[in-house]
């Protein structure tokens, strides 16, 4: 509970050529990026996520469009609307997350601290809750 989810303002550089937005390890995020992926074409009303991570930290950016991220640390739930490519949502370890309300055409970008490892996921909410509460 010492590593809360939070909105991170990203430095932006706008000039007559457009806007450039930066994420740099050691500045906007406190982890080295081991993997990146993006998600698009989410049908209306579909949810994604429904899992937690043991170690993984991530920064989530709605590069285009908008969606909501519901985060749950085993004690409290919080809801973040991502609708601005100049801001990211930092999500630390031991957080259950759901992504909902994807507007048509949305593209989300995930920058994450670990390689893909299914063993690192919690897919079962009760198992997550047990460990999250035991760890606090
Ligand atoms: C997360 C949320 C926000 C891979 O093979 N490599 C990868 O790096 C990823 C992320 C996924 N996959 C495969 C595994 C599944 O067969 O892609 C398929 C869809 O993955 P998943 O069901 O986990 O997708 P989401 O959107 O529910 O979750 C993803 C990430 O898995 C997760 O780390 O935090 O986005």
UniProtKB/TrEMBL annotation:
Domain of life: Bacteria
Domain called Sugar 3,4-ketoisomerase QdtA cupin: residue spans: 5-130
Name of the protein in question: FdtA/QdtA family cupin domain-containing protein
């Amino acid at each position: 509970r010492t590593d809360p989810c939070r909105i991170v303002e990203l430095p932006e550089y706008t000039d007559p050529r457009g806007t450039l937005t930066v994420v740099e390890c050691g500045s906007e995020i406190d982890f080295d990026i081991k993997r990146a992926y993006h998600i698009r074409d989410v049908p209306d009303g579909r949810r994604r996520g429904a899992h937690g991570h043991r170690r993984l930290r991530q920064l989530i950016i709605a590069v285009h469009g908008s969606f909501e991220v519901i985060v749950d640390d085993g004690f409290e739930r919080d809801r973040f609307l991502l609708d601005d490519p100049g801001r990211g949502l930092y999500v630390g370890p031991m957080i259950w997350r759901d992504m909902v309300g994807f507007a048509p055409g949305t593209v989300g970008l995930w920058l994450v601290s670990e390689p893909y490892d299914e063993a690192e996921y919690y897919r079962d909410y009760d198992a997550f809750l047990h460990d999250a509460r035991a760890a606090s």
